[in-house]
Structures are given as structure tokens and as C-alpha cells.
Amino acid sequence: MKIALINENSQAAKNKLILDALEKVVIPMGHTVDDYGMYGPEDKAQLTYVQCGILGAILLNSGAADYVITGCGTGEGAMLAMNSFPGVICGHVEDPVDAYTFAHVNDGNAVALPFAKGFGWGGELNLTYIFEKLFGFGHGQGYPPERVEPEMRNKKILDEVRAQTLRPLTECLDRIDQELVKGAVAGEHFKELFFASCKDAAIREYVEKLL
Length: 211
Prior knowledge:
The protein has 10 helices and 5 strands. Helix 4 links the parallel strand 4 (about 90) and strand 5 (about 110-115). By secondary structure, the chain is of the alpha/beta class. The chain is about 50% helix and about 10% strand. It has a 5-stranded parallel beta sheet with strand order 2-1-3-5-4, with helices on both faces.
């Protein structure tokens, strides 16, 4: 699995701490991590949590990433921004139980974490435990055991509903302020990471024109 990390401006100073915790857990599992930044508070490309949602949707829908880790001060804004787009099911995760149940009940492809609220002493340990529960025990197996069948059925129903209520991604992006979208893909290493992994021709073409 290719996992993308995206951080917004208010929490950019924590990027290395988050990346280190993520890589420590998932690389031994055989996953890879692409760090899309922000890499620090002084980055030239400043991402808002809304732009984290735009970038995350581009990565997931294009196949450039299989999973996105993002967040903001509370995690709420980043979660809402991610869920504004097709092809994204993003959970708000504060602790390891959230991570485990989101993986198995909701079977999404992104999480938004609070990198300021409640992030005190031992914050990096909580991140480590979250990533272990998120990636170390599979996905979509249902929870608790007696609820496996209905939970799996509900997930399929949700996917069908979202397929009817959300527009294709490139159509969504065309309707958004293009300067806002450009800012979402302006990161220092975006081009080298994205174009090496993008699997969707239409999204690649859109991004090429945008840039």
C-alpha cells in the first residue's frame, strides 16, 4: 500500500514527528510512504485544511496513493474537506480504538487526526498506536463479530449512495477556484511524487494543464 502524508500550515512543524511515527509502523509491514508536506511552517507552498482535502482527493482518485493520512488542529476541518470529494471516505481518528473501528467498520481510505487538540505529552506514542491499529489488522472485516454481516452490508450501501450523489473528480475540480486547486498541488515535491505514481489518465491530464 502506498500511503500519502499531507499536513496543513498550522501543524506543519509536526510533519517530521508524524512522518517518523508513520514510517516506523508501516514500513516494516511492507507499505511505502510519500510525504507531500507541508514540511515546515516556512514552506513556500502553504496548505490550508481545505487544500489538504483537494490534494488528498487527487491522490486517491488518481491512484497515486492508496491511503491518505492528514489532519489539522482538531482534525475536523481536514475530515470535512476530504469527505467533500468522490472516491474518499475519511474518518476522524483521535485514538487507537477509533483507528481500529474505522478500519473494520467503515473501511475508508483516509483519516484526519487532531495534531493540536489533545496533542501533549506522549502525543507521538498515540500516533504510533493509531497507525498500528489502522494498518496492522486488515480492513473491512467488521466489528464487533456479531455485527460483521450488517456492517459490511451497510458499507456497500454507502458506496452505492455516494456513487449517485457525487460528481466525477475532474468535474468537481473544474468548478472550484483554480487558484485554490493550484495551491493544493504546489508543494515542493508534488510533481516528482505524483507523476511517478498517477494511474488515471484524465486526472493526470487535468493536473498537467493546471500546472
